[in-house]
Design goal:
By secondary structure, the protein is an alpha+beta fold. It has six helices and eight strands; from the N terminus they run ββαββααααββββα. The chain is flat.
């Protein structure tokens, strides 16, 4: 068996019968595809999320871009989640309500806000641990544009695994008029930078079992 050379042909060719004629179809396949996050960010792409050491208590991340909510996407979300309350999907019913028009369901506003915060907060997270104190102090309507900000409230190393830590943020959602429409706090389990984790691991091992008293 002959091993391929250092630069294999990236073009994959196959014969197929099409409309009574034998044709050659070509597909380009890259000889090396980096699929891990670290390698792709090293190419110069914008980093997704932060390592534990990169969070500073008190920092406020003003996530970009904002998002305008359309009627179509909102109704699709309601259908996908089986929320058929007429306040969200029925113009006639909503017109007779105290708001006088359709109100965007709060679960969509929350999901959208969390998604908009991922590039700055949880893009590297190992897990989302909890959401706390979710509230909707003002309604959101079709056509509103939402802007999301997250404040870092707390960072603490994991008590059981030295290669990670817990980050708590307070996320606030504003409409185009600056009105606070949604807010919540959430905790994410975030990895440490690869070059710092081994040192922490060795120090925790030398410290005995006390470092394992808290499990996270």
């Amino acid at each position: 068996m002959v091993s391929p050379g250092p630069h294999p042909d990236p073009w994959h060719r196959k014969l197929a019968l099409q409309m009574g004629r034998l044709r050659v179809f070509e597909t380009y396949v890259t000889p090396q595809l980096d699929t891990d996050q670290a390698s792709r960010e090293a190419s110069g792409a914008r980093p997704l999320g932060r390592y534990f050491e990169e969070f500073e208590v008190g920092a406020v991340y003003k996530h970009w871009p904002g998002k305008t909510i359309t009627e179509g996407e909102h109704h699709l979300f309601c259908l996908l989640t089986m929320n058929h309350h007429p306040l969200h999907t029925n113009d006639v019913f909503a017109a007779a309500s105290q708001q006088g028009r359709n109100v965007v369901v709060g679960t969509y506003v929350y999901a959208l806000a969390l998604g908009l915060s991922v590039p700055d907060v949880s893009g590297k997270s190992l897990a989302n641990l909890a959401t706390e104190e979710l509230s909707h102090p003002a309604p959101v309507f079709h056509g509103d544009t939402l802007f999301v900000e997250s404040e870092v409230l707390e960072t603490r190393p994991s008590g059981s695994k030295p290669d990670r830590g817990v980050v708590k943020v307070h996320t606030r959602v504003y409409n185009q008029d600056g009105v606070l429409v949604t807010e919540f706090k959430r905790l994410s389990l975030v990895p440490r930078k690869p070059e710092t984790a081994p040192a922490e691991e060795s120090s925790s091992q030398s410290g005995g079992s006390a470092a394992n008293t808290r499990k996270e």
